[in-house]
Design goal:
about 350 residues
């Protein structure tokens, strides 16, 4: 008869909030071997909501509670406009605190994220995709919902992930210190794509406080103007991308704008280069990730080659590939856009 299994850890966390963060750093073997550097990916797809956005979501809700805008144990509403992952994190964090959520999402986002939001109980409002300057943009639409509810006397917050500095503060308090501890302070560069800019800003501040020489590099998809903003000071977008939730065509989010002084450079990654990493990580290393992670890993490889062998570059594996099955892993979708199809799906 087999002996009873011996527990390997006595570490028990408290609910959703306790399960957010403390994700492992994964050595990316092929990228490391190709560059002579240690390229490490922060496995944010292991958060309970499946993405890095759980950190910002929890940080925003906890900040609202500290301010008295939400009160644990009493009815409250969280309203947000999102490409999907922040809405998932907010909905789960709100559920755990006893609040409800209204999530506004452009209808162009992946079917998997939309279905997931419905499944976990979000009051989902799908609207047409509009540019930021249009009042129908999902950010403005969600703000108006929150303002109308507040005017009616309801206890509600507009999460405002782009401008709410609690977003970046959450990463400064958790993600950055985790990376420093996990590398034993041996981190030479950090690269990350930006939607709200919270991850890059918060991690940059945390790492620079420990080691000012750490190189911070923004990774940007085509169709976004952030690469140009870092490189020239002017927002100028060219091309397009199938990635979701990252890049900005015309406006710099508040979380990123306040961190401009700690960002050292930027790289621009086309979809083909990002998808090479997405498909390669899945086929050769058993890591299924989304498009933003592909951009991040491609950027880490570029930074490693710029810096030369012997350096440690950290990036973020933002979410899992299952959230993009209908797009990044859909041969018809890829062929329509003249993008490579992974061999096992062709």
């Amino acid at each position: 008869m087999n002996a009873e299994p011996t527990p390997t850890s006595t570490h028990v966390v408290d609910g959703f909030a306790g399960a957010v963060g403390n994700t492992p750093l994964i050595r990316l073997r092929r990228a490391s071997e190709a560059t002579g550097c240690e390229i490490l990916g922060k496995a944010e797809f292991m958060n309970p909501g499946g993405s890095v956005k759980d950190r910002a979501a929890l940080g925003i809700i906890e900040d609202a509670e500290r301010r008295g805008q939400l009160i644990p144990g009493e009815p409250g509403m969280v309203v947000e406009g999102t490409a999907g992952n922040t809405g998932i994190g907010l909905t789960l964090a709100a559920n755990a605190r006893g609040y409800r959520s209204i999530i506004v999402v452009p209808e162009t986002q992946s079917r998997e994220k939309i279905d997931f939001l419905r499944m976990i109980g979000a009051d989902l409002r799908l609207i047409p995709a509009k540019p930021y300057r249009d009042p129908g943009h999902y950010v403005h639409f969600s703000r108006r919902i929150a303002e109308e509810m507040q005017a009616a006397g309801e206890r509600v917050i507009w999460a405002n992930q782009f401008g709410n500095l609690a977003n970046g503060a959450a990463h400064e308090a958790t993600t950055g210190p985790e990376i420093w501890a996990q590398t034993g302070g041996r981190v030479d560069a950090f690269t990350c794509s930006c939607g709200t800019g919270g991850t890059l800003a918060g991690v940059a501040r945390a790492l620079k406080a420990k080691r000012p020489g750490v190189r911070i590099v923004l990774a940007d998809p085509m169709g976004s103007g952030l690469y140009s903003w870092i490189s020239t000071g002017e927002m100028k977008a060219e091309g397009n991308s199938v990635t979701e939730g990252i890049g900005q065509a015309s406006n710099v989010p508040g979380n990123l704008e306040v961190a401009r002084g700690v960002i050292d450079g930027a790289v621009q990654i086309p979809d083909e280069e990002a998808l090479e990493q997405v498909f390669g990580l899945q086929l050769h290393e058993g890591l299924s990730v989304g498009g933003s992670a592909g951009i991040n890993v491609a950027a880490a490889i570029r930074v490693a080659r710029q810096m030369g062998p012997g350096h440690t570059i950290v990036t973020v594996l933002c979410d899992g590939g299952a959230r993009y099955q209908s797009k990044l892993f859909n041969p018809a979708f890829l062929r329509e856009r003249n993008l490579p199809v992974p061999s096992w799906l062709a």
